[in-house]
Amino acid sequence: MVWSGKNPMRIKVARMARVVVLVAFILVLRGAEGRKKGKVAESFEYTAISCRGHSASITDFGGVGDGKTSNTKAFKDAVDNLSKYASKGGAQLYVPAGKWLTGSFSLTSHFTLFLHKDAVLLASQDMKEWPVLKPLPSYGRGRDAAGGRFTSLIYGTNLTDVIVTGANGTIDGQGSFWWQNFHKGKLKYTRPYLLEFMYSDNIQISNVTFLNSPSWNVHPVYSSNILIQGITIIAPVKSPNTDGINPGMNTRDPNNVFNYIVSGDDCIAVKSGWDEYGISFGMPTKHLVIRRLTCISPYSAAIALGSEMSGGIQDIRAEDITAIHTESGVRIKTTRGRGGFVKDVYVKRMSLHTMKWVFWMTGNYKQHADNHYDPNALPVIQGINYRDIVADNVSMAARLEGIEGDPFTQICISNVTIGMAAKAKKVPWTCTDVEGITSGVSPRPCDLLPDQGPEKIKACDFPAEPLSIDRVMLKRCTSRVKHM
């Protein structure tokens, strides 16, 4: 017998061992796959005006976060199902990490929509998933077209106690599709916004990123008690009409804004209706607070009032504003036929870098809803106060143009230092049909705004009486949810 070094029995045992190991490995893999298909529990905390008694995940309603499957029905089913908890502690819909393609869907009262930090709501590019609404009654027509308007991606009307928040998840409007169709004149209706609440109150929008909106980003209208904080809004600076936040008719309590905005239009655009429609509707925007805003918008303003201001704008308070590469710091826009008013505007502590104008007011912004406006409906611009402002690399300090026979009055500007650019205009101030005073302003203002001396440096101060938004107390909410 010759020994070959290979024992047949050992070979057989080794083969059996390999088979056993292979079977065990397959079982382990199957077990891992089983765990992947099971539910995962996640805990999270956030601050809010209200905490909720019930939680669910969008995956509980068939949601698929692959960026390709439409989740419009899943979101609608989720909101409809969770609405039954409105009187039982409210409900919260959790959107986990993933890309959740969806068309327009509406929210319900006593409801929270929470986005995981890696959750992205992707706006559908199928127009069939965007219902069409009638024009806003204070506008009489759409902004892009004379007819109706596409419903916003996230929408709500006649609601109370609604929160849209998260861990800085993203709402992506995929706006290039809409911008291209708008430029080509292919849209029958006004482009949708990303988020709109109408006739609603006690609304919180916080800790979410809005990206590439088809048009305006956040639009609370005919609503009150709106809190907006910690949001980021980004769109290409040449994208059409991608205003950041467009508050209109917040009639009782103000917004409180701590936000970063890069947009193709005004970062904050305060409005209240257009020509005869806004005059007839008659709902002013009042008691608005804007705080700690950072804005980049080379072709528009950090804060704009108008031009649709026919219902009136009053008691607007803005402080601690930073604007970089922005056309103007504060812009007031109106014209003959607007009617309405802009009164009691208070702005302080602005830091401005590379501007075309620091201050711009114009009574010659001639866009009209239609030809039925009354040319004798003159706007009232009164009580505009700016103080404690520093700017550098500015082309022109101010362009202030009132309306002949209807001057802008009670303008007050104090403690302002404007550093002019190397190629600045030779005349830093132009003023027509305006009245007011200045104190401690450099370069020297126009003669229509005479310097009152350093003793008047505080003449343009804020009102001493705080607004109710300063007394809002947020709760710390803790939640745990299981999802696929």
From TrEMBL:
It comes from Hibiscus syriacus (Rose of Sharon). Belongs to the glycosyl hydrolase 28 family. InterPro entries: GH28_Enzymes (IPR051801), Glyco_hydro_28 (IPR000743), Pectin_lyas_fold (IPR012334), Pectin_lyase_fold/virulence (IPR011050). It comes from the Eukaryota. One of its GO terms (molecular function) is polygalacturonase activity. Keywords: Glycosidase, Hydrolase. GO terms for biological process: carbohydrate metabolic process. Gene3D superfamilies: Single-stranded right-handed beta-helix, Pectin lyase-like. This is Polygalacturonase. The keyword Hydrolase applies.
